[in-house]
Write a structure and sequence with these properties.
337 residues; alpha+beta; five-stranded antiparallel β-sheet; four-stranded antiparallel β-sheet
C-alpha cells in the first residue's frame, strides 16, 4: 500500500510503489498551500476533484501544487488556498509498467471426442501481459469503489471469462491434443483479441497472451499412458523377458549378468526345440506301427524296404490252402507273388 507524507499532505506522492499494484488512490486528505506533487518514474498521476478528472500528469518530477498544478486544472483555475483550510481532492497514481501474469484453467475444458458424450477433459496454462489503458474508464469502473487495484484483482477478472474463450477457440482450432499443440499460436492470438475486448471495458489493455501447454488431468493422463504402453507391447511374454533383463542390468550386477541370463534363456529355448522334434518323431513312428497290414500287402520300412525282395505268403489269400513257397497255390492256382 502506498504511504504519503504529512498529516495535511505537505507532499503528495506514492512513496512505496509495489510491483503488484496497478494503481493507488490518494484521497481523504487536504492539500495545503505549499504542498508539492511528486511523480516518480513509471508513474502517471490523475488529479480528481469531486470525483471528476481535472488533469493527467505523465512527466516525472516535483510540482508545486499552488503555482504549477492548480492554475492548469480546468475547473480550479480560480481556486485560492485559504489560510486555515486547504483543497480536499484526490490523486490517482497509476503504475505504467506492463505486467506478466501466470494463468491456469479453473476447470477442465472439454474437447469434442467421438464416443464420449461430454467430451475429453483437458487443462491449459500459460501467461498473459497487461497494462493500464483507458484511465477514464478505469476511474469510472474501478477506482470509484477501490482504494487500489492489484494483479490478483486483474487475474480474477481474466479467469472469470478465460474458460469460455478457451472453449470457443479449442472447439474451432483443436480436434485432439496433437492438433491443439500444433495450433497453440493461433489459439493464443484469438484469445488475446477477445480478452482485450473484454478488459478494455474496465480500462485495461491485454498486450499479449500465451498458451504454454495443454495437458490432461492426472487421472486421465494415467489411463492414456497405460493404454499406450499396452498397445506398444504385442507379445506379453517377450515384454516380461525384456523387463527381467532390464531389471538385471539396472540392479547393479552389471551387463555381464544380463548377458548370462540371455544366454541361459537361449539355451533353454534350443533344448525345448530339440524335445519338440523328438516328440514329433516318436509320434510319427507310433502312427506307422498302428496301421493294419492287409493280407498280401508288402510292408515297407524306410529305405531298406526298397532294396528287399518280395516275400511269399504262408497261406493262399484266396482259398486258405497252406503253400510251400511256390509262385501259385497248389489248390486253386491263385498267383501268390
Amino acid at each position: 500500500m502506498g504511504l504519503f507524507k504529512g498529516q495535511f499532505a505537505d507532499v503528495v506522492e506514492w512513496e512505496e510503489q509495489r510491483d503488484d499494484v496497478l494503481f493507488y488512490k490518494w484521497c481523504n486528505k487536504e492539500i495545503k498551500k505549499g504542498s508539492r506533487l511528486v511523480i516518480r518514474a513509471g508513474q502517471d498521476a490523475v488529479f480528481l476533484y469531486n470525483g471528476r478528472k481535472e488533469g493527467i500528469f505523465t512527466e516525472e518530477g516535483s510540482y508545486d501544487m499552488e503555482s504549477e498544478i492548480i492554475p492548469f486544472l480546468s475547473s480550479l483555475k480560480g481556486f485560492k488556498f485559504g489560510f486555515n483550510s486547504g483543497l480536499r481532492a484526490e490523486v490517482l497514481f497509476i503504475n505504467t509498467k506492463e505486467f506478466t501474469v501466470r494463468w491456469g484453467t479453473k476447470n477442465p475444458v472439454l474437447i469434442p471426442t467421438e464416443g464420449l458424450v461430454g467430451g475429453l477433459p483437458i487443462r491449459a496454462r500459460g501467461t498473459f501481459n497487461c497494462k493500464a489503458g483507458d484511465y477514464l474508464m478505469m476511474i469510472e469502473k474501478i477506482a470509484g469503489i477501490k482504494q487500489q487495484f492489484t494483479i490478483d484483482d486483474i487475474k480474477e477478472r481474466v479467469l472469470s471469462v478465460l474458460d469460455q474463450l478457451l472453449m470457443k477457440w479449442i472447439s474451432r482450432e483443436g480436434k485432439n491434443m496433437f492438433n491443439l499443440q500444433a495450433n497453440a499460436y493461433e489459439i493464443s492470438k484469438g484469445i488475446q483479441e477477445d480478452l482485450d475486448m473484454e478488459m478494455v471495458k474496465i480500462g485495461l489493455s491485454i498486450t499479449g497472451f500465451q498458451v504454454e501447454s495443454f495437458n490432461y488431468p492426472e487421472e486421465i493422463q494415467g489411463m492414456i499412458e497405460k493404454v499406450a504402453s499396452q498397445s506398444m507391447v504385442g507379445d506379453m511374454a517377450r515384454y516380461q523377458q525384456m523387463t527381467v533383463l532390464d531389471a538385471m542390468a539396472n540392479s547393479g550386477q552389471g551387463a555381464g549378468v544380463a548377458s548370462d541370463m540371455a544366454g541361459m534363456q537361449m539355451g533353454m529355448m534350443m533344448g525345448q526345440q530339440m524335445v519338440n522334434n523328438m516328440t514329433d518323431a516318436m509320434n510319427r513312428q507310433s502312427i506307422v506301427q498302428s496301421v493294419p497290414v492287409q493280407p498280401g500287402a508288402v510292408v515297407s520300412s524306410g529305405s531298406a524296404g526298397q532294396n528287399s525282395q518280395p516275400q511269399m505268403p504262408n497261406f493262399c489269400p484266396n482259398c486258405g490252402q497252406k503253400t510251400t513257397g511256390a509262385n501259385f497255390c497248389p489248390n486253386c492256382g491263385q498267383k501268390l507273388v
